[in-house]
Amino acid sequence: MRVVFTRMNKHLPLYLESLGDDWDQEAVQRPQGYPYYHWLQTTEGQGMISVAGQNLLLPTHTGILLSPHIAHQYHRLDTPTWKTQYLTFGGAAVLNILNNKPLNYQIFNQLPSDFILGQSRTITSVTEPIELSVLIYRFLLLLNDHSTTTVHLNNQNNATLVTVRQYLEAHYSQTITNEALASIAGFSVQHLIRQFKTIFQVTPMQYLNDLRLRNAQALLISQPQLNIDEIAERVGYNSSSYFIAQFKAAKKITPKQFRKLH
């Protein structure tokens, strides 16, 4: 599905130009870039984007935000299909929301795709430019809350670590140990932790905990019928009290308080 918004009000701090959801992504080459900010997220399969002299992997739950007029190209990579979601938008407020980071691109990992897809479906039901501006604002706040990591496909170790990360993203609700991850990678536990932290800036268990918390956030917002115990169990915590403690340590509020705010 592709939606183009023709009633853009460029006097607003944020405005939406187009949206694509559950898109069978074709190969794209843009030597002049795109005239608006461009968000591209993988929802199924994986792709590769070439930008600023780098080849970047876009597996499931990973997205990239490109600034206007930045040359890039992307294509499907080693999967039968590559489905994406994308937004194109503009506005003077974008950099302010993203903490004034001058960027050509930013990679975002560990994205709770159900929540972001839900955001896009909300957007398609809105027609007023001011309401669209508010929804883009919320979307950017969500992105700003995610840590950024760039994944380069420059050696076999990196590809192996991406496989470990993808395993975490697919099985975060299950019991996972460093020993099990090391077995998948063919590394010792110490080597896995060291190499994973070099690439992703966190240890595998820190990545797993953050992934669980982000998916818990999505469930707190999108599944109001679930209680805290059920959410803790769904995202992989054996103890709801431990989940609450981890959530509060990361977000400075409890899950119940977070739900009330959203």
TrEMBL record:
<dbReference type="InterPro" id="IPR003313">
    <property type="entry name" value="AraC-bd"/>
</dbReference>
<dbReference type="InterPro" id="IPR037923">
    <property type="entry name" value="HTH-like"/>
</dbReference>
<dbReference type="GO" id="GO:0003700">
    <property type="term" value="F:DNA-binding transcription factor activity"/>
</dbReference>
<keyword id="KW-0805">Transcription regulation</keyword>
<dbReference type="GO" id="GO:0043565">
    <property type="term" value="F:sequence-specific DNA binding"/>
</dbReference>
<dbReference type="InterPro" id="IPR018062">
    <property type="entry name" value="HTH_AraC-typ_CS"/>
</dbReference>
<dbReference type="InterPro" id="IPR009057">
    <property type="entry name" value="Homeodomain-like_sf"/>
</dbReference>
<keyword id="KW-0804">Transcription</keyword>
<dbReference type="Pfam" id="PF02311">
    <property type="entry name" value="AraC_binding"/>
</dbReference>
<feature type="domain" description="HTH araC/xylS-type">
    <location>
        <begin position="162"/>
        <end position="261"/>
    </location>
</feature>
<keyword id="KW-0238">DNA-binding</keyword>
<protein>
    <submittedName>
        <fullName>Two-component sensor response regulator</fullName>
    </submittedName>
</protein>
<dbReference type="Pfam" id="PF12833">
    <property type="entry name" value="HTH_18"/>
</dbReference>
<dbReference type="InterPro" id="IPR020449">
    <property type="entry name" value="Tscrpt_reg_AraC-type_HTH"/>
</dbReference>
<dbReference type="InterPro" id="IPR018060">
    <property type="entry name" value="HTH_AraC"/>
</dbReference>
